[in-house]
Amino acid sequence: MAIARRLLAETLGSLFLSGVVIGSGILAVDLAAGNDAVALIGNTAATGAILWVLVATLGPVSGAHFNPAVTLAFALRREISPVMSLAYIAMQVAGCIAGAWLAHAMFELPLIQIATTDRSGPAKILAEGVATFALVFAIFGAIRHAPKAVPAAVALVITAGYWWTASTSFANPAITVARALSDTFAGVRPADIPGFFLGQFLGAALATGVCAVLFPANKT
Questions:
Q1: By C-alpha distance, which of 71, 93, 98 is closest to 83?
Q2: Concatenated DSSP letters for 135-188?
C-alpha cells in the first residue's frame, strides 16, 4: 500500500505540475496581448506557486520528485532503488502527459498536439544542464541544512530559472515530453528533446557529485 501511495503521489504531482505549466502559459498568452514578457511573468508565478504546494504536501509521501532527473539524482545517492526509480519515472511521464491533455481540455484546445516552438542549439542544452544542476543543488542543500525550506527552495530555483536561463528552465525530462505534446506558449519541438534530455541528466549527475562533496552525510 505504501508503494501505491508513493506512485500515486508522483503521478498526481506530475499531472498538476504539467497542467499548471501549460495551462498558465495558455491563459497568460491570452491575457498578455502579445507581450511575451508579461506572459512569462504569469507563467512563472503559477509554476513557482504550484511547486511550493506540491512539494510541501506530497514530499512526505513520495519525496515529491515529479522529475526523472531528480529521481536519477536520488538513485545515484542510493536513496531509491533502481526498480522504484523506473516506476517513479514511468508515473512522472504519464502524469505530465495527462496534465498537458487536462490543460488543453480546460481551454477547449485539441487534446492531441505536437509542439512547433524551436528551442534548439547548444545554448539551450547548456541552459538545461545549468537549470537542472541548480535544482538538484537546491534540493540536496536544503535537505541537509534547512529541511523545512525544501518546498520554497524548489519553487524559487525554478522561478529564478525561468528568467536567467536561455531555455526558461524546463529542468525536467518528464515535463519536456509533455511540453512537446502541447503546441502552446510552453511548447518545445520533439526534435529538440534529445538535447534537453542530455543537458538535464548531465546537470543532475554533476550536481549529485558536487553535493556529495559540499553536503556530506556526516560532518568531519
A1: 71
A2: HHHHHHHHHHH-GGGHHHHHHHHHHHHHHHSTT-----HHHHHHHHT--STT--
Q: Which three cell numbers stand for residue 100?
A: 498537458
Q: What is the pTM of this model?
A: 0.96
Per residue in 48-78, pLDDT (tens digit) is 999 999 999 999 999 999 999 999 999 999 9
Residue 82, SS3 per DSSP: helix
Q: Residue 15 corresponds to which cell in the numbers above?
A: 499531472
State the CB neighbour count (10 A cutoff) for residue 141. Answer: 18
- Residue 110's contacts (CB-CB under 8 Å, 6 or more residues apart) are 104
The three-class DSSP label of residue 125 is: helix
What angle, rounded to 10 degrees, do the helices at 68-76 and 173-180 form? 160
How far is Cα 33 from Cα 22, in angstroms, rounded to an integer? 18
Return the DSSP state at 33.
T
Instruction: State the CB neighbour count (10 A cutoff) for residue 108.
Output: 6
Asked if CATH classification 2.60.120.260 holds for the domain at 2-214, the reply, yes or no, is: no
pLDDT for 104-160, tens place per residue? 999 999 999 999 999 999 999 999 999 999 999 999 999 999 999 999 999 999 999
